[in-house]
Amino acid sequence: MTHTDLHSYQTSLLQQREALRTRLNQLRGGEPTRALASAAHFAGHEDSQAQTNTARDLEFALDEHDKAELRRIDAALHRLELGTYGHCVACGTTIPEARLRATPDAERCIDCQSSLEGA
User: Fold this and answer.
1) Total domain count for the chain?
2) Is the residue at 119 inside a domain?
3) I need a surface site. Which of 14, 44, 104, 111 has the fewest CB within 10 A?
């Protein structure tokens, strides 16, 4: 992989991270987590307790998903710094560029990812 390719992936990852952070800040209304934003939103709400609990549970799940996405992006940026980006963390083979273009934060080759998901 050329230096230009690596720079392109780094730029893409940084843009994804910034877009995610911006979206999270907008969704949270300045709150540090969706859970706190949800609590503020549902305080004094006239919905049933079950509806409020379901909505709050969804907010927790979305918050965890967003945190995981940020961790994957940060891990990919760290691999770029280490010079290991584009190599499967499980088997060490080169991850095809088509996969990296589709999923710049991919840390495993398709075979290892499939094995992980099938487990």
Assistant:
1) 1
2) no
3) 44
